[in-house]
Design goal:
globular, single chain, 2 strands, mainly alpha, Farnesyl Diphosphate Synthase
């Protein structure tokens, strides 16, 4: 489901995104033609490139000039980490499609998908190292954060007693940390002062939290057609996200029925029943309230930044995400 982002409307962003596409393909090119095909598979499938866009926007704060090639390279390192994690996610989920095409694991098998994902992470690290020790250390730490967040989620699979703090820790690691790093790399490579670097890092983390909470809300309120996949997929996989957890913790009689449906794989019409319960109770509204708190954090961070087109777009971006689930 496409969600409009003001960041995509920044001056030069269309040109810079093309620079990112070219740099991505160059980064994964090797002498081995089959590895080229594996590594470029999801790149050529497309994508919004929100993490590179975050890097470019952060670098553009306070000026209206085109970003440097080093900023583009920094943005590419972040996108390669994201893509590598998707390759691994698809293996774990036994996913058949991604971005409208066959997944690497579905087409070539799990072993090649894992190796291709490792290769993308390696290339991301290589690019980061060329940008300096601080960037390289930051990216390595972020890859660790992604793993920690994913493990937190996996160990709570089908757990109806999962806590909201567990959920927040998980998405902070698996999603928000890479958005924070994307913004920080843009700020570092662009040469922003330390105050701006820290502000943009905090902004990126808050934006990432909004992004994931909104994505999880959409998974339960949008239709299959809007999502391009089955609604309630997370519940089917035993991943109980914020709107589901808040429904379970509500005083509604439906909470007990939902608890009885969860804790195990769905059968029959369980998915439709569970979706109906979540959609008709207060869990979604309370999840929106939580996302609103992170929107406020992101907006307050932007107030500390110098005026520019990028600053305005950054301030508007989390609110635009939130508005996509307010109906």
């Amino acid at each position: 489901m496409a969600v409009y982002s003001p960041l995509l409307s920044l001056p030069q962003m269309a040109v810079d995104r093309q620079r990112v596409e070219s740099a991505l393909l160059s980064a994964v090119k090797t002498r081995e033609s089959h590895l080229n095909e594996l590594a470029a598979h999801l790149i050529v499938a497309g994508g919004k490139r929100l993490r590179p866009v975050m890097t470019i926007a952060a670098a553009s704060v306070g000026n209206e000039k085109p970003v440097s090639d080093d900023v583009i390279q920094g943005s590419v390192s972040c996108e390669l980490v994201h893509l590598g994690s998707l390759y691994h996610d698809d293996v774990m989920d036994e996913a058949a499609t991604r971005r409208g095409v066959e997944t690497v694991n579905a087409r070539w098998g799990n072993l090649q998908a894992i190796l291709a994902g490792d290769f993308l992470l390696a290339k991301a690290s290589e690019i980061a190292a060329a940008l300096g020790t601080e960037v390289a250390t930051l990216l390595a730490r972020t890859i660790g954060n992604l793993c920690e967040g994913q493990i937190e989620e996996l160990t709570k699979a089908f757990d109806v007693s999962r806590s909201v703090p567990s959920y927040l820790v998980s998405i902070e690691g698996k999603t928000a940390s890479l958005f924070a790093t994307s913004a920080r790399i843009g700020a570092l490579v662009a040469g922003h002062d330390r105050s701006a670097v820290e502000t943009l890092t905090s902004y990126g983390a808050a934006y990432g939290m909004v992004f994931q909470i909104v994505d999880d809300i959409l998974d339960v309120i949008a239709t299959d057609a809007e999502l391009g996949k089955r609604a309630g997929h997370d519940m089917e996989e035993g991943v109980y996200t914020l709107p589901v957890l808040l429904t379970l913790k509500s005083d509604s009689p439906d909470a007990l029925e939902l608890r009885d449906l969860l804790g195990r794989p769905f059968t029959g019409n369980d998915r439709d029943t569970a979706l109906s319960i979540v959609r008709s109770n207060t869990g979604v509204a309370h999840a929106i309230e939580t996302a609103s708190e992170y929107v406020a954090i992101a907006e307050s961070e932007c107030a500390k930044l110098p005026a520019s087109s990028a600053t305005t777009a950054l301030r508007e971006a989390p609110r635009a995400l939130l508005n996509s689930v307010i109906r």
